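note to self: dont lose this again. the chain is below, predicted strucutre after it. 177 aa total, dont forget to put it in the shared folder this time
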Amino acid sequence: MGRVIAYLVLILFTGAERVVELVVSKRNATAAFARGGIEYGQSHFPWMVALHTGFLVSCIAEVFLLDRPFIPWLGWPMLAIALLCQAGRYWCIASLGPQWNTRVIVVPGAGAVRAKGPYRFDWLPHPNYLIVAVEGVALPLVHTAWITAIVFTVLNAILLLRFRIPTENEALRKLSA
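---
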């Protein structure tokens, strides 16, 4: 039971970290709008919030309701990967600075960040989404919540590939024009 409680604490800390991200995002959005920022993709944003909230709830629910075990040879490496993903998230957020946001908001004339952090690699145009995808597998598998890992991965891929990434690409094209 101790490892289940430790996993619960991990997920709750992850949720608290997401709340902090939302506060930073809100602050950055307010500043962007004050500078003439334009938001794109408002219709898919509530779905992203629901998916990411459901992901954390599902991590907990699957472990508790389906009595998922902690398997050390799987759980410890997945925990290390999940923690590395957190470091990667912060690298992305720090690299984008005040331009980072959970929404797609561009400020005309601001320019896209291309020479900092993971954004300097042309072959990886959306590094944050790669990190989210890896974390979406690693975090549930810390405690063998494999159904959550599969369902989140599929739904996240649909949301990112059909809506979010095309929206960001379009907004960045308009920013560059």
